Amino acid sequence: MSILKLHDLYFKPFISKAEIHAIVKHLAQQVKHDLPKNEVPVFVGILNGCFLFAADFIREFNGDCEVSFVKLASYEGTSSTNNVKELVGINEDLTNRTVIILEDIIDTGNTLQEIYNIFRNQNVKQLKVVSLFFKPDVFRKELPIDYIGKSIEDKFIVGYGLDYNGLGRNYPEIYQLSTTPKMKNIVLFGPPGAGKGTQANFLKEMYQFVHISTGDVFRFNIKNSTELGLLAKKYMDEGDLVPDEVTINMLKVEVEKNTNANGFIFDGFPRTQSQAEALDAFLSDKGEQINGMIALEVPEDVLVTRLLERGKTSGRTDDTDESKIRNRFKEYNTKTAILKDYFDAQNKYYGINGVGSIEDITKRISEVFDTL
Ligand code: AMP
User: Which part of the chain has CATH 3.40.50.2020?
Assistant: First the structure.
């Protein structure tokens, strides 16, 4: 999950789909458990925000029930206003029925107050309130809320039915208002020998970005015989990938060393789906994101020739043996190439022709870079 931009504001991931599902399921079970055995409740969803919650809740509610919706809103922009608007909806006779209100979120309690006022005159058997989210810090009423899914701090949230000026309702997760990203972060992508390192060296000068090459960090550790180096060496020598956990932790340490950077050029990372997910989560937690993946596209034959050539002078043991090189391609094709789809799905994939002179390729990259 990465950060979202809705209108002029940025939001970062806050509550996952899986957590929401668990909360909703638990609420539905609690409500069912507390009802008399043959009671058929009328669930009343408060639109618009509750539509996803209500839909999921009633699917988890194991028993007969009726469902209705009313509309009544109190939001403008990101702050709760005091003007609760009109109620539209309820046509059925609720006399002597158990009415259970489904709310997506209760903060000041103004809407809730309005609901209690309206239902007071309906001669219902009982009125209960279920709220998926609750902001205890801003709740100012003495009104009962029977079931609360999750209490959260007073920060504006969107997603899973909740909006910011109309947008954001369709996301299956909850996002929280965040600051505007300060960095521009690029993943420089491509198979071994595509020229990522060479290009990164030019780009970091041009843009004053921090360049992190995980391969270089591993080699530095090997040279200095650190524990990390010893561990990485046995994988690197074979042309295998170093395990994700080790690589991800190392990457985080490198990023944390440069918290004031204008941005990062990630070179050789991510190389697996779980690295990509970890990077997204790590950056979005800071309100930052990957702006784009720039991929150097080069045919494999050209690459093998380039790597063997580089091996004559680079001193890299993984560059001299063709079978190790082929293994690196195998790792690339089975574990890394799929990241094209991962970034493409976020509209962040930019393929560049990686064959040509170094200057021409730098130019091609920077043309994309400037648009990100
Ligand atoms: P490179 O310098 O990017 O070609 O990386 C050289 C070697 O370092 C790779 O073949 C891997 O063994 C290891 N390595 C570098 N980056 C990663 C990564 N993101 N995940 C796993 N292994 C890596």
Answer: 4-178
Q: Do residues 197 and 216 lie in contact, with contact meaning Cβ atoms separated by under 8 Å? A: yes
And the tokens for 370? Answer: 């400037």
**Residues whose beta carbon lies within 6 Å of some atom of ligand 1:** 192, 214-215, 218, 235-236, 239-242, 247, 268-269, 271, 275, 318, 328
Give CA–CA dist 306/296, Å, rounded.
Answer: 14
When pLDDT is cut at 50, 70 and 90, the band that residue 81 belongs to is low
Taking the C-alpha atoms of residue 125 and residue 326, their distance in angstroms, rounded to an integer, is: 74
CA angle 266, 267, 272 (to 5 degrees): 90
What is the pTM (predicted TM-score) of this model? 0.84
Q: Does domain 4-178 correspond to CATH entry 3.40.50.150?
A: no
Amino acid symbol at 367: E
Residues of the chain with CATH 3.40.50.300: 186-369
In the predicted model, what is the mean pLDDT of residues 190-217?
94
DSSP string computed for 84-107? ----B---S--TT-EEEEEEEEES
- The DSSP annotation for 261-274 comes to -SEEEEES---SHH
The Å distance, Cα 372 to ligand 1 centre, comes to 26
What would the pLDDT profile of 349-368 be if each residue is shown by its tens digit? 999 999 999 999 999 999 99
Provide CATH code, domain 186-369: 3.40.50.300
